[in-house]
From TrEMBL:
UniProt superkingdom: Bacteria
Keyword Nucleotidyltransferase attached: yes
Protein name: Glucose-1-phosphate cytidylyltransferase
Organism: Roseomonas acroporae
EC number: 2.7.7.33
Keyword terms, alphabetized: Nucleotidyltransferase, Transferase
Stretches of the chain forming a coiled coil according to its record: none
Main EC class the enzyme belongs to: transferase
GO molecular function (one): glucose-1-phosphate cytidylyltransferase activity
PANTHER family: GLUCOSE-1-PHOSPHATE CYTIDYLYLTRANSFERASE (PTHR47183:SF1), GLUCOSE-1-PHOSPHATE CYTIDYLYLTRANSFERASE-RELATED (PTHR47183)
Signal peptide: none
UniProt cross-references to InterPro entries, sorted A to Z: G1P_cyt_trans (IPR046981), G1P_cyt_trans-like (IPR013446), NTP_transferase_dom (IPR005835), Nucleotide-diphossugar_trans (IPR029044)
Location of the Nucleotidyl transferase domain: 8-235
Length: 261
């Protein structure tokens, strides 16, 4: 029996202030890579591992995400429209078989507060969680297996962040190798792809101002309930316009490591 959960939560309510060139007009998860919102790319990553139900907490410009998915089936289908009686017939559909629950969790609510508001929609089952701005070439099945076998309440994916600069290998003044944006140093960081037990809600005891990554995760760690899956592969977070352009270049060149579908 697969340990991959049925549902994934994708945070999609923040302002995305460091990407203001794009986010003045749209929520950060709706910023496009290759003509598709990065939110769509993240959902495709999950779907490749069998997760096809999504619970998405909204905030900033929530109506734009709702409208995108309300129109998605139509845009992904060939249709015949009879203008006489306003009848639309679907000829061919290419929309993914996803179930998407969109919950407005407030403009200024923090991540812990947003997650807490989703508890009624998660049916007291294990679930995946991530942010609406990062992509990865992760085998989610392996993370789910580790999480299930450990019995702990939370598993995060630890990654080595890419360097913001290229590196040189130099010998006696000669450049032997140039590596653009190699993996960073030895430090591991939280890559933001979680597997969680419903028991994590016991740790969400604050209000809308609660930040998931601080109090709740810190207490889980102190209680021995937080473990890490160490991922040595590709991970990238779209924090700036430069990041957006880098992901766009990877996608358009056909070298997007996160495209596992």
């Amino acid at each position: 029996m697969s340990n991959v959960p049925r549902r994934a939560v994708i945070f999609a309510g923040g302002y995305g202030t460091r990407l203001m060139e794009e986010t003045e007009a749209r929520p950060k998860p709706m910023v496009e890579i290759g003509g598709r919102p990065i939110l769509w790319h993240i959902m495709k990553i999950y779907a490749a591992s069998g997760i096809t139900e999504f619970v998405i907490p909204l905030g900033y410009k929530a109506h734009m995400i709702k409208q995108y998915f309300a129109d998605y089936y139509l845009h992904a289908s060939d249709v015949s429209i009879d203008m006489v009686d306003n009848r639309v017939t679907t000829l061919r559909k290419t929309a993914e078989p996803w179930k998407i629950t969109l919950i407005d969790t407030g403009i200024d609510t923090m991540t812990g507060g947003r997650l807490k508001r989703l508890q009624p929609y998660l049916n007291d089952e294990p679930f995946a969680l991530t942010y609406g701005d990062g992509v990865i070439d992760l085998d989610l099945g392996k993370v789910a297996d580790m999480h299930a076998s450990s019995g702990r309440y939370a598993t995060l994916t630890a990654v080595r962040p890419p360097s913001r600069f290229g590196t040189l290998t130099i010998d006696d003044g000669q450049v032997l190798e140039f590596a653009e944006k190699p993996l960073g140093g030895e430090a591991w960081i939280n890559g933001g792809f979680f597997m969680l037990s419903p028991r994590v809600f016991d740790y969400l005891d604050g209000g809308d101002e609660m930040v998931f990554e601080r109090g709740p995760l810190e207490r889980l760690a102190r209680d021995g309930q937080l473990q890490a899956y160490q991922h040595e592969g590709f991970w990238y977070s779209m924090d700036t316009l430069r990041d957006k352009k880098h992901l766009e270049e990877l996608w358009m060149s056909g070298r997007a490591p996160w495209k596992r579908w």
